[in-house]
Amino acid sequence: MTSERSRELVQQAWRSFSTRDKDLIGAFFTQDAEWLAPPGNATAVALGGSPHMVGRDAIVHFLTVDFPRMFVADVALDFHGFYADGDVVVVEVTMRATLADGKPYRNDYCFVFELRDGLIHQVREYMDTAAGHRMVFGDA
Asked: What sequence ranges are listed for the domain SnoaL-like (predicted)?
């Protein structure tokens, strides 16, 4: 897959995430896809989930059911870059949202997407976990 095509596929996938359409979102992932986030990140802790999702169904469930339970309103993404090299795409983004308790959320993220056979096979997610915990759980 060319770098340009890989970048376009990941950009299309990002647009699909906001639809909450499980079939549309699922069509971008391999059946055995994985999504890895830092252990103990605030989202996983608050939702009682795993930072390592395995399988298309688990990822789609998170994006369509769990994510909107945590980030309930005003979700806005400011993309800073989509960088592609063959089947690897790196995305830099700042996400803002309103949490379920009404508090504001803002964090910077970096995602590394690895593609296989024209689909997303693995996502590695990086963020400021300390800031995430402060926004979600307070300073304690």
From this structure: 10-120
Distances (CA, A) of 3 to 30, 100, 120: 19, 38, 14
How far apart are the C-alpha atoms of 29 and 64, rounded to whole Å?
14
User: Encoding tokens for residue 40?
Assistant: 């103990």
Kindly give, in sequence order, each residue whose CB lies less than 8 Å from that of residue 133, ignoring residues fewer than 6 positions away.
Answer: 42, 45
Per DSSP, the residues of the chain read --HHHHHHHHHHHHHHHTTT-HHHHHTTEEEEEEEE--TT-HHHHHHT--SEEESHHHHHHIIIIIHHHHEEEEEEEEEEEEEEETTEEEEEEEEEEEETTS-EEEEEEEEEEEEETTEEEEEEEEE-HHHHHHHHH---
CATH of 3-137, one of 3.40.50.920, 3.30.70.20, 1.10.357.20, 3.10.450.50: 3.10.450.50
The domain limits of the chain are 3-137
Give the pTM: 0.95
